[in-house]
Design goal:
single chain, Peptide Methionine Sulfoxide Reductase, Chain A, alpha+beta, 8 strands
């Protein structure tokens, strides 16, 4: 049987909390934290924290579209972070904490734009979504100590939580 998994790259603030909540979504097969959207190759966490590499803390999400449609994955993404704050999630501030969907196909781009438009129409967030929709370029995995960080450090910092928002 051919592997039919899809991959999308989601940035929405500190990747520790985002990764943990994305992993809980049925149909998500694999995640990895790292960096996308910047101008330096093979970037590391210490470089990104300076805020001048152009990278966003990003989660690579591999999912099974027969169990989880991209539209549903993105609705969950918009429930677990605040997409209305520019370059900020909770106490984390800087362009590395911006909200971005890095799409890997034209279909993902169309779905992302459609989901953002539908959520904006509902006004459930109370402010317009500032999440960018950008083509995927490169992904640089973060150091091993950052992978599954909150599973390794259950009392670690997170500003992410699932909101009971209905976007339909």
């Amino acid at each position: 049987m051919e592997n039919t998994y899809q991959t999308i790259y989601l940035a929405g603030g500190c990747y520790w909390g985002l990764e943990l909540l994305l992993q809980e979504i049925p149909g998500v097969i694999n995640t990895q934290v790292g960096f996308s959207g910047g101008h330096i190759k093979n970037v590391c966490y210490k470089e990104v924290t300076k805020g001048d590499t152009g990278h966003a803390e990003t989660v690579m999400v591999q999912f099974d579209p027969t169990k989880l449609e991209c539209v549903e994955l993105l609705k969950e993404f918009f429930r677990i972070h605040n997409p209305t704050t520019l370059n900020q999630q909770g106490n984390d501030r800087g362009s590395q904490y911006r909200s971005v969907i890095f799409y890997t196909s034209d279909a993902q781009k169309e779905i992302a734009e459609m989901v953002i438009n539908k959520i904006n129409i509902t006004k459930k967030w109370g402010a317009p979504i500032v999440t960018r929709v950008e083509p995927f370029g490169a992904f640089y995995p973060a150091e091993e100590s950052h992978q599954n960080y909150l599973q390794k450090n259950p009392s670690g910092y997170t500003c992410h939580f699932k909101r009971e928002l209905n976007f339909d």
